[in-house]
User: Fold this.
Amino acid sequence: MIKSPLHAVTFDLDDTLWSVDDVLARAEQVLYEYLRCEYPLIAERFAIADMRELRRRLAAERADLARNATKLRRAMLYYVAQDCGLDESAAEQFTELCFAIFIEARQQVKPYEEVPEAIRYLAQHLSIGVITNGNADVYRTELGPFIDFVVRGVDIDIPKPEPEIFHYACRQAGLAPEHVLHVGDDPWIDAAGAMSAGMQAALICRNGAPGGSATLPDCAIVPDLNALNRLIDRALGCL
Assistant:
């Protein structure tokens, strides 16, 4: 299902190139340990589970926050600060400091075993980009040297699966959408979203195809990047 000519591949990050739940949990724990030392009353009032529930509630109540992971977490931190009695100025300082601590820890990702070599191989022949709704910085990972462009929904406030974020990435690549393949782990946010924007798509299913596979988008489905590269090799016959 991958067609020539193909000149670029874009990747989702979280749960496509690395596991994310453990990273987020660790970053939240790092922040909480800081709060226990520097803001013990806030840590007592808001445990990690409480902050997660607050984040879910804010996302449900405000669509503008639900579409942007950075804005949502900042809003949660600001709410926590004000709920614990900090005035506006102190709450803003608290939010900036705590988000900086969280986002630093959030960058400590470990790519899946096959990913670095697979990306290096692709980068010898194709332009490599990133399209993500998350706030990881791929340039701070070992994959950074192989990445030509990055589009983060949190930066432009346009999340996947909206077509415009995919069109924006294609403009960054200087290519027509049909000449770009997007690879991700979510059937709808990644695969269907990319296809609706005119791009090619491939779905990474590391744990097998999700339930209801009969209704999955009509795209390539692979277990990892090694399998993806084999498909690209066969499709283009030149890698």
Summary: DSSP finds eleven helices and six strands in the chain.
